[in-house]
Amino acid sequence: MYSCTFDETIKKGKVGEAVFIKDFLEFLNVKYEDVSGCQSFQVQGTDFIFPLGRVDIKNSYKSYYNTIVIEEYTNHAIKKPGWFDTSKAHLFVFVDAASRHMVFVPNTKILHDWYDLNKSRFGLKLNKPSYSKTGQWQSSFRVVDLCYIPHSFYHKGYIKTDAHSIKSASAKRQLILEDCFQK
Questions:
Q1: What is the pLDDT of residue 38?
Q2: Which of 8, 87, 127, 138 is the most exposed place for a label (fewest CB within 10 A)?
Q3: Residue 75: alpha-carbon gap to chain centroid
Q4: Which DSSP letter does residue 150 get?
Q5: Distance, CA of 138 to CA of 128 (rounded, Å)
Q6: Taking 50 as the threshold, does the pLDDT of residue 181 lie above it?
Q7: Arithmetic mean of pLDDT, 140-147
Q8: In this predicted structure, what is the pLDDT of residue 50?
Q9: How far apart are the first and last CA of the chain?
């Protein structure tokens, strides 16, 4: 196991954000504000703001396995809650940078309740240690199969929500926003 710096972790996340901007926001001409570099939004777990809500991008979708990674603890040693429990975003977007596929998961109470009841089914794994000028820590996560979580699948120009797919760009944009921002 090797360590990585906080800056290296941020760079990995920027790859997913770039895919999201190009293949979703720009492709569908969605108005947004990029707040990923603003510390007050970073602590809220928000990378982008839409007219209808906040989005948190995660570069941890594995389309081949149809899984996402949920960070349970930012610092496993002291059980400091991870982004899943602390994010104020309305929507998590999981990106597979290699395939450019994305999964939209609404950040709802129903999702959190389901996760709390079922997380023991997915083994808790330790991430490699991270370090910065202020110290070292080790996060922990669970790999969760998407078949258990309500989500919409998106790949440049194609969206699938549950059992139907839509072809028009305006209908796609509306469906994504309705699905992802309903509470």
A1: 86
A2: 8
A3: 19
A4: -
A5: 6
A6: no
A7: 90
A8: 83
A9: 40
Q: State mean pLDDT over 133-139.
A: 81
Other beta carbons within 10 angstroms of residue 145's beta carbon come to 12
Asked if 30 contacts 50 with a C-beta cutoff of 8 angstroms, the reply is: yes
Between CA 36 and CA 19 the distance in angstroms is 14
Q: Which one, of 76, 46, 75, 66, lies nearest residue 58 by Cα?
A: 46
Nearest Cα residue to 47 out of 4, 99, 83, 101: 83
> Does pLDDT of 165 surpass 60?
no
Are the C-beta atoms of 87 and 103 separated by less than 8 Å? no
Q: Going edge to edge, which strands form the sheet with 53-58?
A: 33-34, 48-50, 53-58, 91-96, 101-106, 152-155, 158-161, 164-166
Query: From residue 11, how far is each of 17, 133, 159, 182 by CA, in Å?
Result: 10, 17, 27, 31
33-67 as b/e: b if 16+ CB within 10 A: eebbeeeebeebbbbbbbeebbbbbbbbbbbeeeb
Exposed / middle / buried, residue 102 (Cβ in 10 Å: 0-12, 13-18, 19+)? buried
Query: What is the reported pLDDT for 164?
Result: 39
